[in-house]
Amino acid sequence: MQVIAFVTQKGGSGKSTTAASIAVAAFQQGRRVFMLELDRQGTLSDWIESREAEEGPDCERIDATALETALATLKGANYDLVVIDTPGIDSPGVNAAMRSANLCLIPCRPTATDLRGCLPTVQSLIRLEKPFAFVLTQCPPRSNRVEETRAGLAALGLIAEPPIVSRADHQDAMAAGMGVTEFNEAGAAANEIKQLWIWIENKLEPKGKRNVVKAA
């Protein structure tokens, strides 16, 4: 079973939105996915309650002290991917998620404030010797700021591809209890999330078992 954790001490970076859409994209590509929410704000819990689709990732909000037990239970239940959403603060829950993850993803908007804000998270991950990558989120469609931020982040670590452009589909999908690849499958936002999931999957080794359903 593989575990990815979305971690950052900077709020408003699109962490929960990206986590939800990545979980859905992974499910659509054959993964058996469970989402664990450690954030008391309950963004993912609200999202899952709004969800009408009969199939998709499972989700539960838990306290950080229950994380180790939860992961052991999910492994025993044959889930092959767990997506952890964490609060945007420095907390024992965030550190526990970092330690448990095979790959940590740091959402970061292309702003100087976000770049500075992610530094404590990066320092924690380096100290824990955990693999991590930045995910550029809420990017303007055309702006030099994206390349400037990429240059700044490249000095700190790996950058996931592609950058996620700020599009209304992301917010509309969350409000509808959907991943963006469900909400507008042919849209530009969906295409970026599909590409991002492929990038993430290529970083996860070994690859997990697939739950692809064969056509009758």
UniProtKB/TrEMBL annotation:
Organism from which the protein derives: Rhodoblastus acidophilus
CDD domains: ParAB_family (cd02042)
Lineage: superkingdom: Bacteria
SUPFAM superfamilies xref list: P-loop containing nucleoside triphosphate hydrolases
PANTHER family assigned to the protein according to its UniProt record, in alphabetical order: COBQ_COBB_MIND_PARA NUCLEOTIDE BINDING DOMAIN-CONTAINING PROTEIN, P-LOOP CONTAINING NUCLEOSIDE TRIPHOSPHATE HYDROLASE
Protein's UniProt name: Chromosome partitioning protein
